[in-house]
Automatic annotation (TrEMBL):
A single GO cellular-component term on record: type II protein secretion system complex
Name of the protein described by the UniProt record: Prepilin-type N-terminal cleavage/methylation domain-containing protein
Transmembrane segments: 21-47
GO biological process, one term: protein secretion by the type II secretion system
Subcellular location, record wording: Membrane
Pfam families to which the protein is assigned, alphabetical: N_methyl, Pilin_GH
Keyword Cell membrane annotated: no
Membrane topology category: Single-pass membrane protein
Amino acid sequence: MKTELKAKFIQQILSKKKDSEGFTLIELLVVIIIIGILSAIALPSFLSQAGKARQAEAKSFVGAVNRAQQSYRMENTQFAAATASLQINVPTTVATDTSGNFYYYYNITDNGATNTTFTARPVNNESNSLRAYAGGVVILGGNNNGLTDTVACMTTAPTGAAPTLTLNTTAASCATPNINMK
């Protein structure tokens, strides 16, 4: 009797092994649901990274132009009217570009002998997802002392309009409600 019981027990164990191979439908559904939840959480963050990179590029250009304008002013006793004069690689033909690789309009405005501004505005179809940026350089106290002040501002929310700067002979600042990036 004992051997018959042992044989049935071994047969039972072997038959269960064959039945329990693979995954059940419920286990597969649980895994699919978990993957779906994780991707739903991660996808918005992943998609916003491209916009953050585009904004970082615009911020970088604003800072580079501010520094280049300071250097140009020290060497030439005037501000540059175009980025080509600054010898930095900032795209200026965005408005006529058809490749779709540019997301900002870049523009230098020479405001006379005492200050200059540089703006980075999102192109029309990107103005609802990208912030605008502006930078400025001003000569403090007049033309001859060589002291300058710079400011770099960004808008509080995505927009197509560049931030407003306050540039006078005592300081450079961002107009309310824009954010100073210094």
